[in-house]
Fold:
Amino acid sequence: MNNLQTPTNKLLDEYIDKFNGDERYYLADQAIINLFDAFPENKYLEHILLKISVINDLYSTNILGTFNMAKHIQQLDIDNGLNQGDPHLVNKISSGHGIVSKKNNKEINFYSFATKYCNWHNRDNYAIFDSFVKKVLMAYKRKDNFSAFVETDLKDFIKFKQVVLDFKQFYNLTEHSLKQIDKFLWIYGKEKFPANYGQK
Structure:
């Protein structure tokens, strides 16, 4: 079971310190925070393009058509929804952009990217999904059954966010925000389930 430790506020602090102590991850986060603080709105294509490009580069989200994605986000008019933490925006951003896979000519679902894009605008209301987070949540479900869900639920943002909140409640992680829990899930997942390629 990968020797999973029971999550506690102390364990989270330990791993958040690891994240903050890693120059690459910490500075990447600071760069994105500064950028999104400078350009909080999604009205101008050049601002959206800049934000997508930085997330894409620092977190390897593999958006192949950044300009198409930028136009898609601009047309969605998401600023009010983002401020209110509207969970439906994740799905709206992840599909409908017309960027297709060369392999099967089907539109690619950029779910992980969409959770990141929303998160950086509103860090209190949007949890970030990626493969490490998924592996950790599934492992803890097998270990302690902290929440009733199946793996495919994690690709439905409303259900996914609830699973993260269940994780917080089950382990009594009262001292930590959604953003801090996300950092823990990611860096702990990276340590316990190392991948041979790519980053968050």
In short: The chain has a mean pLDDT of 94.
